[in-house]
Amino acid sequence: MPNRLAHATSPYLLQHADNPVDWWPWEPAAFEEARRRNVPVFLSVGYSACHWCHVMAHESFEDDATAAYMNDHFVNVKVDREERPDVDAVYMEAVQAATGQGGWPMSVFMTPDGEPFYFGTYFPPASRGGMPSFRQVLEGVGGAWSGRREEVGEVAGRITRELAGQQLDHGVGGLPGEQELAQALLGLTREYDPVSGWLGAGDTKFPPSMVIEFLLRHHARTKSEGALEMAEGVCDAMVRSSLYDQLGGGFHRYVLRQQAGGPLVPHFEKMLYDNALLCRVYAHLWRATGSDLARRVALETADFMVRELRTAEGGFASALDADSDTPEGGHAEGAFYVWTPAQLRGVLGDEDGARAAELFVVTEEGTFEEGASVLQLPGAEADFELRARLLAAREERPRPGRDDKVVAAWNGLAIAALAEAGAYFDRPDLVERATEAADLLVRVHMDFSAGGLRMHRTSKDGRAGANAGVLEDYADVAEGFLTLAAVSGEGTWLEFAGFLLDMVIDRFRVEGGAFFDTAHDAEPLIRRPQDPTDSAVPSGWSAAAGALLSYAAHTGSDVHRTAAEGGLGVVKALGPRAPRFIGWGLAVAEALLDGPREVAVVGEPGDPHRGELHRAALLSTAPGAVVAVGEADGEEFPLLRDRPLVNGSSAAYVCRAFVCDAPTTEASELVRKLTN
């Protein structure tokens, strides 16, 4: 019989709706029930595409005996971390502090007041490798609660006080300047391996999208060849490894080396946010270098998002699962993507199969599990005819599951990527897909009915979820709208971005320039989450600073620029010490040092000359440059006001702080102005 999760909008929660565990969603009633029964709360946090979340569910949450014990001794709460990043962040901080590591599924035991006292991630059904079984953990926690309640309460209270009392260095000592950005570049140089092309030590490699954006912007501003070489090296390493889907395009979540000297193999989830960020990275790399490989990867990644993640309502789904069914009736991680030499020969024939095995490093021993290999492309350019035949055959396999939840922030990232890719590569269909996603966010996620704008973080099937948007939702959607405004010339998107950024200032910013991840009137947790460091996505803090700076450049608003500058103090503090973890903040700082430049392109609609100038402006590598296009003295964009034609011809104005150089009517001259 379905439990309380049956009415959820989260695909992850719905995966657990038929568990024998009597799950509760995160809501006050769950904690009230724990108080009434005088039992602890077990919080389990995961997400739909998480492999180990599925493993623990099959091993423990679908087991009748384990579920019966959980139901008798706990109130069990299931949370989708993608719907409630605030809950995830607060308790993950406690898990990492207590255990020295984190991950999902996250398992937290807490008092009915939400104070945590015991932590972990995945627990196996039987003890192994020094790890207790989940049943042992349940019994140990239950015994401590019933027999040592006072001690448990003291531990929970101390942990909660320590979390609440932590103070973040906001970096209020000033703005990042040349010295801090140079130190950040030096730090990245020390972490870069020019042989492998990867950044950072260790056997697990995540795509450093935001760091690459910083490197590209730093090169554009300073002409540092070292910065560009690093950006190119990392991008080449990623796309030639198994991180990239060599047949269908798009990137997996990360790669890891499972044994010393062994190959890098992916964790096969495909996340919208990774692919949106990397699509933009490769488009910007092409813009800087003209690389054919970068162009191909940007377009293949854009096409992957549209083909496999676009929803019926025009938004983009969160993720594809790592796991899928096998032709033999099993279920395994990576089954959709891996190949054996025999499978290649079965599709391509002996000669072409052998050629494909050599090209994509498919060996008889296998580079993954059970003799299978994940495709790589370490050598020459791909053979597109072979790729097409293999892709067609792969389409006949059982497909990975899809999390159809639309997350506002990640759709904002996708809008920015698709709009730019469409503009750069003459693909108006991609701009149209970006516009449709933006329309969905306005219709479904932006709520003006409650006496002011509120964002819904998620939707599914065109229905908004109940969870409030967090800072990254407001900031990343504003970033997407600002990019779409520059590409489309429709000032409505600038206006919507302004609504969102006004809410950022009013509800997320505090005196001194810091940002919190939740609004001042959000549901109170044991700690108000606040994290300026970039992880797999730009932090809400960095994203807000970037969008505020761009909006200020578009409008001349001192309020928004001051808010952006206040948010960048933390980059001065963290950039030289931990550049890999504040890449987007560093990229925004590059834009601040460059101005950012403001480009107004005026002319009649449909005028090819205006189109040439507009394209030249969009293709500029000037860090964070904003672009407005429209009729002379137009009202859609503040940058167009008092900007006339020049001798009756379309013209472009390059400005900083609304102070402009002499206009130009030549695209080549505009390129020169934006390059120097």
Shape, per Cα inertia axes: globular
- CATH fold-type name of the domain at 4-165: Glutaredoxin
Distance between the termini: 67 Å
Structural class: alpha+beta
Task: Give the C-alpha Rg.
Answer: 26 Å
Keywords:
single chain, Glutaredoxin, 676 residues, 5-stranded mixed sheet, 48% helix
Question: Can you describe this structure?
Answer:
48% of the residues lie in helices and 11% in strands. The chain is of the alpha+beta class and 676 residues long. Among the domains are: 4-165, 3-Layer(aba) Sandwich (Glutaredoxin); 337-396, no CATH class; 597-676, 3-Layer(aba) Sandwich (Glutaredoxin), CATH 3.40.30. The strands form seven sheets. A five-stranded mixed β-sheet has the order 1-3-2-4-5, with helices on both faces. It has a four-stranded mixed β-sheet with strand order 20-19-21-22, with helices on both faces. The protein has a three-stranded antiparallel β-sheet with strand order 6-7-8, with no helix packed on it. Helix 17 (428-445) packs across helix 18 (471-488) and helix 20 runs parallel beside helix 23 (583-594).
Question: What's the quick description here?
Answer:
With 676 residues, the chain is an alpha+beta fold. Among the domains are: 4-165, Glutaredoxin (3-Layer(aba) Sandwich), CATH 3.40.30; 337-396, no CATH class; 597-676, Glutaredoxin (3-Layer(aba) Sandwich).
